């Protein structure tokens, strides 16, 4: 796989910062970590773009928490374990569902305007896989924006937190599996910056842009996973990529997510003949877990020869639809579609990564002084398939935990990074490389080989191509974000396909046509890799 570092730089010539704690990311996980760490430590929050550009900001459905009358953490636990298809860590899930309500109440106290039935009662909706209406939402279907806004306000008001926007995480500063901070690239100025810290928290999100069609923003190129892998961290369950079942499919239109909550409120899925089909695949119909709905849509498209299916709420009260889904309605209107009466063309697209940097329940990786939380991490919460709306809760609970643990390390002295260079100098020739072309080719290759349904032959051929590309893509020392992103995307693509090839069964979001059944005897376990597995 990749080398230990991407660049050859003399660190003595690079400007330096030295906060107690670095948090890398911009969403709910990063902000939760920064706020928790800042109670008695100086925190630098480093973002690739700005605080708004994250999966949190674009989250529509909401955050799941057992706060409704008649609901309980035990019920939430059971639903999560069922969705995870046998690979959830029950202790991690219990931490999520028991601490989650406290973290959500904290959000409410900070001014997050969750929707209410009245002044005294929160409004809850239902999503696939949940046995109770436990999804809190804000401004109908703009939950992520509301949460991000309230958290960002806390960040900018906090005296111990500084925000460094538009700085790309090139690599972690590490030696012998100890993390000393990070090397950043000023996206606008083109200058490098060395940031040493007592603890570093990765909260960089997933790998959505590795796929051709994705609900994720452009910044989700797997950077956190790639830098952790290069630093020697163990990666876990990289084969488990969740595809959201209902993403707008129109020529020329951005792949806009149509929230799970639309089906939770009673929407129907229709095939090209206008027929409901979900009950043919699962008795729960449109409210089956995401992996089942995505595979059912895929199968129905194959059966009918169609490029998409349709989502319809025409049978529901239009006033309810407009109240609950104003953002979706507004977006569809731009394309001449009326959510209240038209059939909306949808198909699955890459949405969420269940795997990532392996961590324990304290968000600690196996690289000393390095923590990870949220979508970049894998501690067993989501298993083989994430339960809808558990991702924001994951960010709140484990982002907070990462911040608390990083704060604890800040009480101790920080050793100085022992390297003068981030890697030894070597002579090499620069080759002409069309980054955009390789990037587009990579996204298409991964989509074809590691999509909703996979098989050994297709993945083996794809991995051979990726391994060939690595010989010249990794050889380049890019000093542009696009080039550095490409190297990270290539590393993540290789890990996804290697994991999918190794897991010879079908489980959760991982479906093998050549191994169509789950195999608990051999594969009810995690698949892990680290850089040492690929070194001679």
Distinctive features:
Flavocytochrome C3, Chain A, domain 1, 5-stranded parallel β-sheet, FAD/NAD(P)-binding domain, alpha/beta, single chain, Methane Monooxygenase Hydroxylase, Chain G, domain 1, globular, 536 residues, 3 domains, 4-stranded mixed β-sheet
Walkthrough of the structure:
The chain is an alpha/beta fold and 536 residues long. The N and C termini lie close together (11 Å). The protein has three domains: 18-240 and 354-409, FAD/NAD(P)-binding domain; 245-348, Succinate dehydrogenase/fumarate reductase flavoprotein, catalytic domain (Flavocytochrome C3, Chain A, domain 1); 435-527, Methane Monooxygenase Hydroxylase, Chain G, domain 1 (Up-down Bundle), CATH 1.20.58. Helix 3 crosses helix 4 (90-109). The radius of gyration is 22 Å and the shape is globular. The model has no long low-confidence stretch (mean pLDDT 91). Helices cover 34% and strands 16% of the residues. The protein has 15 helices and 20 strands. Strands 7-3-2-11-18 form a five-stranded parallel beta sheet, covered by helices on one side. Strand 2, helix 1 (28-37) and strand 3 form a beta-alpha-beta unit. It has helices at 28-37, 55-58, 73-83, 90-109, 143-157, 223-230, 260-264, 290-304, 318-324, 326-333, 390-409, 435-449, 456-473, 481-502, 520-523; strands spanning 16-17, 21-25, 43-46, 63-64, 124-125, 135-136, 161-164, 167-175, 178-186, 192-196, 199-203, 235-236, 241-248, 268-270, 309-312, 344-353, 356-358, 370-372, 377-378, 528-529.
């Amino acid at each position: 796989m990749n080398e230990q570092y991407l660049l050859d730089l003399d660190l003595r010539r690079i400007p330096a910062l030295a906060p107690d704690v670095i948090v890398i990311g911009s969403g709910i996980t990063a902000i939760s970590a920064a706020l928790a760490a800042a109670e008695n430590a100086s925190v630098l929050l480093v973002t690739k773009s700005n605080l708004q550009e994250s999966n949190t900001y674009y989250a529509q459905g909401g955050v799941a928490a057992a706060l409704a009358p008649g609901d309980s953490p035990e019920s939430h636990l059971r639903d999560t374990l069922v969705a995870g298809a046998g690979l959830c860590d029950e202790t991690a899930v219990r931490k999520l569902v028991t601490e989650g309500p406290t973290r959500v109440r904290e959000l409410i106290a900070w001014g997050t305007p969750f929707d209410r039935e009245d002044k005294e009662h929160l409004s809850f909706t239902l999503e696939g896989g949940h046995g109770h209406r436990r999804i809190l939402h804000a401004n109908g279907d703009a939950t992520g924006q509301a949460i991000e806004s309230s958290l960002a306000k806390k960040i900018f008001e906090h005296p111990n937190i500084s925000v460094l926007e538009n700085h790309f995480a090139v690599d972690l500063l590490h030696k012998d599996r100890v993390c000393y901070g990070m090397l950043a690239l000023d996206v606008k100025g083109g200058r490098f910056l060395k940031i040493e810290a007592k603890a570093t928290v990765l909260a960089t999100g997933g790998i959505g842009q590795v796929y051709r069609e994705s609900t994720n923003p452009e910044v989700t190129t797997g950077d956190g996973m790639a830098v952790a892998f290069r630093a020697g961290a163990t990666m876990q369950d990289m084969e488990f990529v969740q595809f959201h079942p209902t993403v707008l499919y129109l020529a020329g239109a951005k792949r806009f997510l149509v929230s799970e909550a639309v089906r939770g409120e009673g929407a129907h899925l229709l095939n090209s003949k206008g027929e409901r089909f979900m009950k043919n695949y699962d008795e729960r119909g449109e409210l089956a877990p995401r992996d089942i709905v995505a595979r059912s849509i895929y199968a129905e498209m194959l059966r009918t020869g169609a490029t998409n299916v349709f989502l319809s709420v025409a049978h529901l009260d239009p006033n309810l639809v407009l109240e609950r889904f104003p953002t979706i309605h507004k977006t569809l209107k731009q394309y001449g579609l009326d959510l209240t009466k038209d059939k909306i063309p949808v198909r699955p697209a890459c949405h969420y990564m269940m795997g990532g940097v392996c961590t324990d329940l304290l968000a600690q990786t196996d690289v000393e002084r390095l923590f990870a939380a949220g979508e970049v991490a894998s501690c067993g919460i989501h298993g083989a398939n994430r339960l809808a709306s558990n991702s924001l809760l994951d960010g709140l609970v484990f982002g907070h935990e990462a911040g608390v643990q990083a704060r604890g390390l800040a009480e101790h002295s920080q050793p100085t990074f022992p390297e003068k260079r981030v890697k030894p100098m070597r002579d090499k020739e620069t080759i002409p490389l069309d980054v955009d072309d390789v990037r587009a080719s990579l996204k298409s290759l991964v989509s074809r080989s590691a999509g909703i349904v996979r098989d050994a032959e297709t993945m083996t051929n794809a991995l051979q191509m990726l391994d060939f590309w690595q010989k010249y893509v990794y050889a380049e020392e890019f000093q542009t974000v696009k080039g550095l992103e490409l190297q990270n995307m290539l590393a993540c693509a290789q890990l996804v396909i290697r994991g999918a090839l190794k897991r010879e069964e079908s489980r959760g979001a991982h479906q093998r046509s050549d191994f169509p059944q789950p195999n608990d005897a051999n594969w009810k376990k995690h698949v892990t890799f680290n850089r040492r597995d690929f070194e001679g």
